[in-house]
Design brief:
Helix content is 20%, strand content 29%. It is α/β, with parallel strands linked by helices. The chain has two domains: 2-237, Spore Coat Polysaccharide Biosynthesis Protein SpsA, Chain A (Alpha-Beta Complex), CATH 3.90.550.10; 252-340, UDP N-Acetylglucosamine Acyltransferase, domain 1 (3 Solenoid). A seven-stranded mixed sheet has the order 5-4-1-6-11-8-12, sandwiched between helices. The N and C termini lie far apart (48 Å). The structure holds guanosine-5'-diphosphate-alpha-D-mannose and magnesium ion. Magnesium ion binds at residues 104, 106, 221, 223.
Length: 346
Amino acid sequence: MKAVILAGGKGTRLRPLTIYTPKPIVPVVNRPFLEYQIEVLKRAGVTDIAISLSYQPDKIEHFWGDGAELGVRLSYLTEAIPLGTGGAYRFAADGCETATVVVNGDILTDIDLAEIIRTHKERKAIATLTLTRVEDTSRYGLVELDPEGKVVRFLEKPKPEEAAKIGVNTINAGIYILEPEVLALAPKGENRSFETQIMPEIIERGMPFFGHVIEQNYWSDIGTPATYLEANLDLLSGKIRGFELAENTGSEIAAGASVDDVSRLAEDCTVKPGAEIRSSVLGRGVLVEERAVIENSVIWPHTRIAAGAVIRDAVVGRSCHIGRHASVGKGAILGDKTQLTDYTRV
Ligand code: GDD
Ligand code: MG
């Protein structure tokens, strides 16, 4: 079985982090994000993976090449103009004679994909959607199932009052198993949306279309700053299972500094005496000076946090300079190369 990872969006909601770094390689606990998806696919025996791009493709291809180091076969497909989620699938899976796994390129999950593929086959489905439960369905694709698990409604980003009327909390988790029959619903070279066009059409045509609700596993769309930070912290705290995090090696941590057990530091970091790091991720080459405090935060590579600065519940981009005694607080997202003067508060 082949997989297509849809990674052609611009990542606008993750700005400023995605100005220089395309969303698929945004680091999550110091690993480019898509590696977590590749691992989930690989565990299910899906190793032929096409990454569907339309934005900064060279940066991404350069990262993994043919995928040999990850133990998979990667190919890259770049649309001349964005074709939408469904059009991109047709472009990437054209001519494919077996089922394809299609994955939204911003989903962090520890699902057992093999089990979903198994149920898809047992039910002889043409399409299977993975679903998860959320409180507020209005940011997602709301999916209603009948008692047999058949999809009877797909409504993308419903208005809150519309969603309330329907009254279900199951949403599209962005992972589909699709038989080649679905390709015909996305005419070659045309822009098509899975969410607003193809899924409703599958329902209309009465094709065997099922939902598979994931009840126990972790699931998050990391496409907003808040969920991006949360996903990092959830990996640190062990809420997401099955991924090994790199050990803290190759950094210089002063005797008088304190780094808790869950924090992860990439190589070449320096932590000076009196500094404290709690539940945080530091990218390669980060310098934390005397008595600085970093808590529940993600710091990208080569940033310097000067003496006495405090960073809490925030994301700080690459090569920033946070001045002495500056304070960066809840929800702050600093883009690459941000310079904060001493004592600044954000
Ligand atoms: N190749 C390609 N071409 N990829 C695209 C295109 C395109 O034209 N447009 C979007 N994508 C990719 C994005 O990069 C992203 O990985 C994925 O498709 C989904 O797009 P988002 O922009 O992140 O959509 P969303 O988060 O608002 O909603 C989608 O995901 C939700 C789950 O997180 C929908 O599929 C919802 O139904 C779903 O609930
Ligand atoms: Mg998304």
